[in-house]
Amino acid sequence: MGRHSCCYKQKLRKGLWSPEEDEKLIRHITKFGHGCWSSVPKLAGLERCGKSCRLRWINYLRPDLKRGTFSQQEEKLIIELHAVLGNKWSQIAAQLPGRTDNEIKNLWNSSIKKKLRQRGIDPSTHKPLSEVNDKALSASNDKNSQGSYNLDEKAKPAPAAARATNYPLLDNPTPATHEFFLNRFVATKQTESINLNEFLPFSYSQPQQPQQESSDLFFNTDSNSLLSASTRSTSNFQQSTFMSSNNNASLFQTSNGYNPSWGLADNTKSQNQVNSVENDQDYIKWNDQFLQVPFLIEKSSNETKPEVNFGVNNPEIYHGQQSVDSYNKHFQRISTSYGQFT
DNA sequence: AACGAATGCAACCGCATACAT
DNA sequence: AATGTATGCGGTTGCATTCGT
Question: Which ranges are annotated Basic and acidic residues under compositional bias (predicted)?
Answer without folding.
Answer: 124-134
